[in-house]
Amino acid sequence: MAQELIRRFVCDLQQVETLPDPVYDFGSLQTEEAPVPTGSRPQAGTPVAGDLRPLFADRPFTGVDMRPGPGVDAVMDLRALELEDASVGTALCLDTLEHCEDPPQACRELARVTAPGGICVLASVMLFGIHAYPSDYFRFTPEAMRSMLAQGFDDVWAAGIGHPGFPSQVVGVGVMGRSLADLDALPVLREAQQAYERGRGTVRVGIFNYPPGELLGALVRQAPRLMKELRR
């Protein structure tokens, strides 16, 4: 299930790239929570609607996941998709790869089923706590995502959002038989990165942006321990 930032990324992508039919959403199960916005520390999310169907209204859309539930039309293993070669126009795999036991194999399968002229869109968290839906296995750098896409796609792109050395989210796109537009200029990515860098209303400590009240509270709670250690 895609978080709100990634939904907006897909919306922006629709303005500059062709996302052909049929559309498949791999990892479509609607869970109760989604990750917090870019620039925030890992913590419990807030309920959001993660269904991507409204972005592809009146178009052939199939939700696929490893288990049945809300938003799922077909149950499949991402490592061995029950689909014909070159049968998918747009393959969406958003906030899902970290829950797969073999992400490189999953990306090879996504490339196998994507048709000429088709597109694959990936997204995953990096700086985020363990979240079991039902299990959480991996984190990916932009280079890792680019490498996995390059196993089968003709032109690939990947980028991180947040701290350059430890991004909060990583997104990637691969296409078959064509070239990609300049995706670095997508508004949602630029805005999210600028918001992280500004850190408005927060204090940056390392790679995190903390609200001043939260940071002060942590210092007050830990002050007695720190004072004892300094006296030793």
Summarize the structure in short.
The protein is of the alpha/beta class.
N-end to C-end Cα span:
50 Å
- Report the count of strand segments: 9
Shape, per Cα inertia axes:
elongated
Number of helices: 5
CATH structural fold name of the largest domain:
Rossmann fold
Radius of gyration: 19 Å
Tally of distinct domains: 2
Strand order of the largest sheet: 3-2-1-4-5-7-6
Please characterize this protein's 3D structure:
The chain folds into 2 domains: 4-198, 3-Layer(aba) Sandwich (Rossmann fold), CATH 3.40.50.150; 203-232, no CATH class. Strand 6 (155-163) and strand 7 (166-175) form a beta hairpin. With 232 residues, the protein is of the alpha/beta class. Strands 3-2-1-4-5-7-6 form a 7-stranded mixed sheet. A two-stranded antiparallel ribbon has the order 8-9. Helices cover 28% and strands 24% of the residues. The chain has 5 helices and 9 strands; from the N terminus they run αββββαβαββαββα. It is elongated, with a radius of gyration of 19 Å. Helix 1 crosses helix 4 (187-198).
Task: Give the secondary structure arrangement, pairings included.
Layout: H1 4-16, E1 23-26, E2 61-65, E3 74-75, E4 88-94, H2 103-113, E5 114-125, H3 142-149, E6 155-163, E7 166-175, H4 187-198, E8 203-205, E9 208-210, H5 212-231
Parallel strand pairs: 1-2, 1-4, 2-3, 4-5
Antiparallel strand pairs: 5-7, 6-7, 8-9
Helix pairs in contact: 1-4
Keywords:
232 residues, alpha/beta, Rossmann fold, 2 domains, 7-stranded mixed sheet, two-stranded antiparallel ribbon, 5 helices, 9 strands
